[in-house]
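User: I'm new to structure prediction. If I give you an amino acid sequence, what do you actually give back? Let's try with this one:
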Amino acid sequence: MSLDFLLTNFNTITLTIWLLFFSIVVVRLTRPQILKNVSYGLLATIATGIHLLYGILATWGQYVVWGKSEFTRILLSSALSPEVPFPYLLEWMRPFFVGTHGYFAFYSFQNFFLSTVALLVITGLFYLFLITRSRYRAYNFREGDIMLIVLAMLISGWPGVVVLLPIGLISAVIFSIVARIFYGIERIPLAPTFLFSAPIALLFTVKILTALNLYPLLML
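Assistant: Good question. You get back a string of structure tokens that encode the predicted 3D arrangement of the chain. For your 220 residues, that looks like this:
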């Protein structure tokens, strides 16, 4: 497999990996005896690792691409201009990008790692919310439900998680109504609706947010 093929199809390969990972999580949910030694916590750690590995490999790929041209090769060793704006909350990070290779480091962080930071922050906050809620309404959660929702968020990525949350909640309400009316089931688990909404967020977030004119605002 050539380097050019990997660089050209990098996003497609990444998407395929996430779909395979989603399949593994589904097997863990529906056939736990097959992956009984694989915990949801371990899967969440692996998912986080995939996001970080994506950033590392994308940074390496960008370095290779820029290194092929005399014009772009200059950018690899350029300092970051003091005039480059930083988001207010990230201004404290500017010293990390000064000096040689500062521009490339900033470009890589902004394009390949900032989205992961945003995803982990949102996922962490939602995890804390669910943990707090489970202490007061434990009957709404089965064992492993919270980590399943976390996995769904990690699979969706950024800004997919922004699409996942409303889709997951709306799906849960619809399935609850259908289950109650047609099957007499009073309560259905919340986590599976989030998990099975994750591929929708993974595959169609760009189209959904573009249609709502939100994609330019959320794209990192």
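You can read the tokens as a compact description of the fold. Here is one thing that stands out. The mean pLDDT is 89.
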